[in-house]
Amino acid sequence: MTTGKRIQASIVTVAKDIVDGFFQITHNGFALLGLVVMFGAVMLSTQPDMRQAGELQLMEWLQERQESFSGLVSGKATDRVTAVNPKDLPKPQAALAFWLAKKYNIAPEPLSALVVEAFASGARSKLDPTLILAVVAVESGFNPFAQSPVGAQGLMQVMTQVHGEKYERFGGKLAAFDPVANMRVGVKVLQECIARAGSLEAGLKLYVGAANMDDDGGYSAKVMAEYARLQAIAQGRPVPVGATAAARAPSLDKA
């Protein structure tokens, strides 16, 4: 490791240690945001060439800490609320929960928790939550235990063997079958695919493992059709429950 990289790692480690200690005293995670940003700015300003890399590391760590503060979307499945009364949700989320529950024959309470997570993940990743839900619908039909012949697993049919490191923060590869953990990892993979491909449709094709193929088996069209329906539901427009996007029969090597 170069001297510059050792200094950068030391700065980030010190920042983390200070904030972790302060968190143990205050138990107020959101109050730490200003402290860490200020600390990082002061420390990294002394090393301009390392500022960008240091900021990226600190912000990624901050995001992980912020996610762990919410009881509903806690990183550990045992600490997380797994069902929510849809009547307690904002109107667009409640409408989505009731419609999806009826459409996919799932109890509305656990599905409501997934809708809440989709909106939280969407805000973090800058992806439309209804797009995330559309991918889940087409990939697994909201079956958290789904598995494809090529090893894609869970709600968003993530290739666990390919993206196993993304599950480390959730306890390991078996977290692929935890709905929220799978959704978070799937959203990360989807975000990366869209960024690499340069467009939503191309990103979906990459996500399903058909980037180098002429035909993705109608996958992108199914996702986009369900996406449009869910957008309409969230906007309060009526959509027949019978307009179903059937879950894909996975046969491609996914991203």
Estimate the strand proportion: under 5%
Query: N-to-C terminal Cα separation, in Å?
Result: 31 Å
The number of helical segments is: 9
Q: Strand sequence of the main sheet, in spatial order?
A: 1-2
CATH architecture of the largest domain: Orthogonal Bundle
Biggest sheet architecture: 2 strands, antiparallel
Overall radius of gyration: 20 Å
The shape, in one word, is globular
The level of helicity is: 55-70%
Question: What's the average pLDDT?
Answer: 78
What is the total domain count? 2
Q: Spans of 5+ residues with little confidence (pLDDT < 50)?
A: 18-33, 35-39, 65-74, 246-252
- Structural class of the helices, strands and pairings? mainly alpha
CATH class of the largest domain: Mainly Alpha
Number of DSSP strand runs: 2
CATH topology of the largest domain: Lysozyme
| Element order: H for helix, E for strand | HHHHHHEEHHH
